[in-house]
Every structure is written in structure tokens, then in C-alpha cells.
Model the fold of this input.
Amino acid sequence: MTSLVRCVPVVLVAAAHLAAQPQPVRQPIQYTLRFPAAKNNYVDVEARVPAAVTCALEGPEQGQPMKAWATLGITKVDGSPLPGADGEREAFLMMPAGRFGPAFIVTPNFYTLKLYNNSDLYALYIGHLADRMAGAGAFAAAWGKMPAGFTRPHVQAMQQRLVKEGYDVGKADGLIGFKTRIAVGKIQEKRGDKPTCWPDAAMVRG
Done:
């Protein structure tokens, strides 16, 4: 018999099923997913972000009304308007690989999922799996080749250096989370470079 506690695929499918429900769903232990029963009830939507829009706008601390993102020229990845593009619903930009991968506009539901597992990719994939269960297709944009030539300890050292310079990188743990990506993007802009919000070996090694 498969263990529901230790079987990762089963847990992911169960979480996606919960995310797809139109009404609040109570999980067995202590978490409550509260998703409004609305037409645009979703976790994330893959987006097309114009080159003129900086990737340093991402993260949960920089939310804007959906219509503000639309005004910047952000659309669904196929070029069609964002869901509720003329509305006031708060939404957030997420670019987990900076300019080297897909971009997403996420709703507060995304951060509700992170109450269970504080990982951007976990919440992203659960939301995407819920969409796939509802008939949506795969991600359209490709995950590009990431800059190489450094390790997690190198990133941690860079983060510690940036903290001393006054940048907020979140936890200096060697992981390139949204705060580190934002800091990298701001540094790239300050240098006059096109921001990718992802460090290269030269930046990491200082």
C-alpha cells in the first residue's frame, strides 16, 4: 500500500486538487486554503513581460492591481489580456529564473499555498498542476540555460557581501530567492546593464 504521507506524487496531486476547488477547502491537519469562488479563481498565469519592464518588480512586497500590470504591457504568454486586466485585484510578478525562464503573474492564492511549503517553485507547480487538471496546457516559455561557474557557497558569500552594501537579499543561505533576484536586478540597472535578475559568475565571485 502506498503511503500518502511519504509519496511525493500523491501529495502534489492532492494539493493541486485542493487548489482547483472553487470553495474554501480544509486540509486534514491545520491549513486552510481560502480561494474565492470567482470567475478568475487561479493561482498563477504564465505571462509575457516586455523587455522595458524590469524583473526587479517581482515579489510579494511589490503587488499591484491587475490593471496596473496590464498598463505596463504585461499580457498572458499568448499575447491575450491578463485575467481581470481591467480590475483592482492585487497580483504579483514572479520570475523564478529572472530573465532566463518563464514569467508569471500570481494572485494571493499563490502565497496561500506557500503557507504549507515556503517555496516559490512548489506553489508554482501546484498551481500549474491544478490548471492542467482543469484542461490547461504546459508552460509555453522555455527555461533557458542559466549562468554557471559558481556554487551555493559562492552565492552565500555574495549575499553576505550585498548585505554589507545595504541590499536586502532575504536570508543569506546560498539560494537565489526573490529578494536576491531583486537585489541583483537593481545592481545590474545601477551598472547600466540590462537586468536579468540572475547573477553571473563575475558578480557572484565579486
